[in-house]
Design goal:
By secondary structure, the chain is α/β, with parallel strands linked by helices. The protein folds into two domains: about 50 residues, Orthogonal Bundle (Helicase, Ruva Protein, domain 3); about 130 residues, 3-Layer(aba) Sandwich (Dna Topoisomerase Vi A Subunit, Chain: A, domain 2), CATH 3.40.1360.10. It is about 40% helix and about 15% strand. The radius of gyration is 20 Å and the shape is elongated.
Length: about 210
C-alpha cells in the first residue's frame, strides 16, 4: 500500500512489521499519530526508547524486568522449589493471569525445531539444568505447548534431568494437542497446571537432536 508520501509509507512499513498488524491497520495507526499533538508522538517514542534501554531478561528466569532479578523470583511468597518451564514470556504472562500458580518460572526462549534450525543450544536448557543443580528446586512443570516440537523439547529436557533429584511433571491435557499455550483460556490453563501429571521417559526422539 502506497500513499505516495515516502515518510508515511516508511512509517506504515514499520507498523506493519508488528505481529498481527496489516497494512491497512498500520496506515490507520500512522494517521492517528499524525492527527494527535506532537507531544503525544514524543511521549509515545520516549516510552518505546525506555522500553528498549531499560528492560532486560531476568538473570534467573529470563522474564522481562528492569532489575537484574524480576519481581517473581524475588517474591518471598512464591514457592522457589517449584519451577514452571515455558517457551516464551507470553506463556508466562498467560499463566500469571490465571492467578492460581504461586511458583517460579524458567523461560526457554522457544522449542527445539530441527526444521527451523533451532537446537538445544539455542534455548536456555543448560541454564535450567544448572539452576536445578545449584538451587533447592523440587519440581519442574513442563508448561510447553503440546505440539510435535513441544513434545520433543520436553523429552530432551527430561533426558538432561535424569539422575537429578527433581520431580518432572507436565500440564494435563486440558490443552489440546497442537494448541499454543498463550491462546488457551485462563480456566483451562489453570486446571491443566493444577492437575499436572508426572512425566514418564518412555518416548523416542530424533537422534539428530
Amino acid at each position: 500500500m502506497s500513499t505516495h508520501n515516502s515518510l508515511i509509507d516508511e512509517a506504515v512499513k514499520s507498523f506493519s512489521s508488528l505481529p498481527g498488524v496489516g497494512s491497512k491497520t498500520a496506515l490507520r495507526l500512522v494517521l492517528h499519530m499524525l492527527e494527535r499533538d506532537q507531544s503525544y508522538t514524543e511521549s509515545f517514542t520516549q516510552s518505546l526508547m525506555a522500553l528498549r534501554s531499560k528492560i532486560r531478561p531476568c538473570n534467573v528466569c529470563a522474564n522481562y524486568t528492569e532489575a537484574p532479578v524480576c519481581h517473581i523470583c524475588l517474591n518471598p511468597q512464591r514457592d522457589q522449589s517449584l519451577v514452571c518451564v515455558v517457551e516464551t514470556i507470553r506463556d508466562l504472562l498467560a499463566i500469571e493471569q490465571t492467578g492460581h500458580y504461586r511458583g517460579c518460572y524458567h523461560v526457554l526462549g522457544g522449542v527445539i525445531s530441527p526444521l527451523d534450525g533451532i537446537g538445544p543450544a539455542d534455548l536456555r536448557i543448560d541454564e535450567l539444568v544448572e539452576r536445578i543443580k545449584t538451587s533447592e528446586i523440587k519440581e519442574i512443570i513442563m508448561a510447553i505447548s503440546p505440539t510435535i516440537d513441544g513434545e520433543t523439547t520436553i523429552f530432551y529436557i527430561a533426558k538432561q534431568l535424569e539422575g537429578l533429584d527433581v520431580k518432572t511433571s507436565q500440564i494435563a491435557r486440558g490443552v489440546s494437542f497442537g494448541g499454543e499455550l498463550e491462546y488457551t483460556d485462563e480456566l483451562t490453563l489453570s486446571r491443566s497446571i493444577q492437575t499436572r501429571i508426572p512425566y514418564q521417559l518412555t518416548k523416542t526422539t530424533d537422534s539428530s537432536i
